[in-house]
Write a structure and sequence with these properties.
Layout (H helix, E strand, L loop, with lengths): L2 H16 L21 H15 L6 E4 L3 H10 L3 H17 L15 H23 L6 H9 L8 H16 L13 H11 L7 H17 L9 E7 L6 E7 L2 E7 L7 H11 L3 H14 L8 E3 L3 H17 L4 H14 L6 H12 L3 H11 L5 H12 L3 H14 L4 H18 L7 H13 L5 H4 L3
Parallel strand pairs: 2-4
Antiparallel strand pairs: 1-5, 3-4
Helix pairs in contact: 1-9, 2-3, 2-4, 2-5, 4-5, 5-6, 7-14, 9-10, 10-12, 12-18, 12-19, 15-16, 15-17, 16-17, 18-19
């Protein structure tokens, strides 16, 4: 992938930055309303605690855009893990001393956020305490770890669950494979890879395809969510990472999106990446939290983002579900078929069958969870985990190896993508149920926007 790709996306981001801000909220001012809640002391303790854990765990602090003096003070002190554990316990006790108030369903209270804030701080602190325990040597099973860190446990699926879906993919492929290709004689994974090869974006078309996908995702999001004036992101190319893309939020409405260019990029990755990492995914999620909770309410706990925490399930779940929000129904197929396939020089006739196969392959997403559960619980080794992902996730050996590296680095974090998406989808469906058809789209966007601009956590997504 050439540097032209990066320059094109940077230019597109600058266009968003320079676009007229009519109807959008300005963020040039500093915090407009300092908070005066009994939770404010805990909030600062929480920030210092997260930064302190980050001194022992390089992956823990995903974003921090508070005053640099706060980070400098923590670096100078560098509290040990025993001290951090005591501080976590003390902060949890302070939150517990604040009377709980039920926030009620969305829209039922003039201001449900203070109650949500207490719940947020409590669960984030309990998660931080569990992470400290892990760093001190405590061992958790996969499910116990996911519950302790992310306040959620992924469902368990056996091999028969995945085999049923593999059989459906086999049937779908037989309907579109070229005559005489003897596709059915090859391993199913190889046949899926052969299809993906036919929809791989040529190197010299990547720049245009991604720029167009990002422009579309941003346009569709901006039509539903008032984006703050000045929001922007830049894109960097990286290699040899355990993930395909990553959003690093820098504060002041700015993200850096890194794209792993080590492996071929299929046409559907353009929309996936543009929505998940950008609009209405991670970039929009983080800038709305900064706008609504840091700037307007003065809540410092949202100036830091611990990766291994319940917040990540919301972040990843909304980023994944954001793709469906931006492209409901058949709109994604139409956009890819009519715009991206021709732009990439690919056969538009492949768009519909490829979308059918990728939708079925998506049903295999929990295969990575099962591999992680078995591997981290000691039932299988790394090689067997990769083989499981190859067989039941239909991944190439290279991508399966990359996935195992991700599991080794981020462990139970893998639940946040598919389980998070499922919980967010169920939450939006439940709160929008009964809405008139002509009002349904607006209602769903309202629910989604409220979710990504508030302190809601996994427990709030589950039906009472």
């Amino acid at each position: 992938m050439s540097t032209l790709f990066r320059r094109a996306l940077i230019c597109l981001a600058l266009i968003a930055f320079l676009a007229p801000s009519s109807g959008r909220t300005s963020m040039n001012e500093s915090r407009s309303r300092p908070s005066s809640s009994p939770l404010d002391r805990v909030a600062r303790d929480y920030v210092d605690l997260v930064l302190g854990i980050g001194e022992h765990d390089a992956n823990y602090v995903d974003a921090f855009y508070g005053p640099e003096t706060w980070r400098d003070q923590v670096k100078a002190q560098k509290p040990d893990l025993a001290t951090l554990a005591s501080r976590a316990d003390a902060a949890i006790a302070l939150v517990m001393a604040v009377p709980a108030q039920a926030p009620g369903p969305a829209g039922s209270s003039p201001d449900p956020l203070p109650a949500l804030r207490r719940d947020y701080l409590l669960h984030q602190l309990q998660s931080a305490s569990a992470r400290i325990a892990m760093l001190r040597g405590k061992k958790f099973s996969f499910d116990a770890e996911s519950r302790a860190l992310y306040d959620a446990v992924a469902p368990t699926h056996d091999a028969a669950f995945f085999q049923t879906r593999l059989d459906r993919i086999d049937a779908a492929l037989r309907a579109i494979e070229p005559p005489g290709a003897a596709g059915g004689e090859r391993p199913l994974r190889d046949r899926v890879e052969a299809l993906r090869t036919r929809v791989t974006i040529p190197r010299d078309r990547i720049e245009a395809v991604f720029a167009r996908a990002i422009a579309e995702c941003r346009s569709r999001t901006a039509a539903r969510i008032p984006l703050p004036a000045g929001e922007k992101f830049t894109v960097e190319e990286v290699t040899d990472k355990p993930w395909s893309a990553y959003n690093w939020y820098k504060g002041n409405l700015t993200s850096v999106i890194q794209v792993n260019v080590s492996l071929p990029i299929w046409i559907d990755r353009a929309v996936d990446l543009a929505c998940h990492e950008g609009y209405p995914g991670h970039h929009v999620y983080n800038l709305l939290l900064e706008q609504k909770l840091v700037r307007e309410r003065g809540w410092p706990e949202f100036e830091v983002y611990p990766l291994f925490s319940p917040q990540s399930l919301i972040a990843e779940g909304t980023a994944n579900f954001g793709i469906e929000m931006a492209f409901p129904g058949d709109e994604r197929l139409a956009f890819e078929r009519d715009v991206l396939f021709p732009l990439a020089g690919l056969d538009p006739a492949l768009a519909a069958p490829y979308r059918q196969v990728t939708a079925l392959v998506q049903e295999l997403s929990y295969a990575g969870n099962e591999a992680a559960r078995k591997y981290l619980d000691g039932e299988i080794d790394a090689a067997a985990a990769a083989q499981w992902i190859e067989r039941y996730g239909l991944s190439s050996p290279e991508r399966a190896t990359q996935r195992v590296k991700f599991i080794e680095t981020y462990r139970a974090y893998v639940i946040n993508y598919n389980l998070g998406q499922d919980l967010v989808a169920a939450y939006v469906d439940r709160l929008s149920a009964g809405t008139a058809a002509n009002e349904m789209s607006a209602k769903r966007w309202q629910i989604f926007t409220d979710l990504i601009s508030s302190p809601r956590l996994p427990g709030a997504l589950v039906a009472p």
